Amino acid sequence: MAMEIPLDIRTLSLLTVLFALFCAIGLVAFSLVQKSFKGLKRIALGIAMVGAGFFLIYLRNYVSVELSVMLANTLILAGLALVDDGICCFRMLPRRTWTIGTAVVLVNFVLFVHYTYQVPSVSLRIFFVSVGTAIIM
Fold first, then answer.
1. Angstrom distance (rounded) from CA 85 to CA 41
2. For residues 57 and 72, is the Cβ–Cβ distance under 8 A?
3. Are 113 and 124 in contact (CB under 8 A)?
4. ∠ Cα 88 19 95 (to 5°)
5. 98 exposed, middle or buried (CB, 10 Å; 0-12, 13-18, 19+)?
6. C-alpha atoms less than 13 angstroms from C-alpha of 101 in its C-beta half-sphere
7. Mean pLDDT of all residues belonging to the chain
8. Mean local confidence (pLDDT), 4-33
9. Residue range 73-96, pLDDT digits in tens
């Protein structure tokens, strides 16, 4: 028989925070050794921002809605945009994605505010963060 391991969103968020922290530290250390690789610090900062967003999700019952919903999701999207920008820099591709990422983050922030306070809808917030992630990546 398979043994089930119950994992809640707080546990998964904490594991994501730890992974992001160690990954970001490793990328910064590697970028200090290999200075010819451009974009690694951007990728590390983006991963750290994603980790910070998941840390705010982990603190959902202890911080305000503004922090746990809007700022957390905005940090996650901004972090993904920064990771994408770092990858473009690393691969020496044109960095057009930063403007797209910035626009997606700003539009999603406005949508988070709207669907948190004016028309409360968790499913629409999930939909828009998913669409934003798809556009950025």
1. 11
2. yes
3. no
4. 10
5. middle
6. 21
7. 87
8. 88
9. 899 999 999 998 888 888 888 776
Per-residue pLDDT tens over the stretch 34-54 = 888 888 999 999 999 999 999
The DSSP call for residue 63 is S
CA angle 16, 20, 26 (to 5 degrees): 145
pLDDT value at position 65? 75
Instruction: Specify the amino acid at residue 40.
Output: L
Q: Which residue has the tokens 């590390």?
A: 44
Token pair listed for 67: 């922090």
Cβ partners under 8 Å of residue 43, min gap 6: 27, 82, 83, 86, 87, 90
Residues 6 or more apart whose CB falls under 8 angstroms from that of 5 comprise: none
Q: What is the DSSP letter of 69?
A: I
pLDDT of 97 strictly over 70: no
As a whole number of angstroms, the distance between CA 48 and CA 110 comes to 23
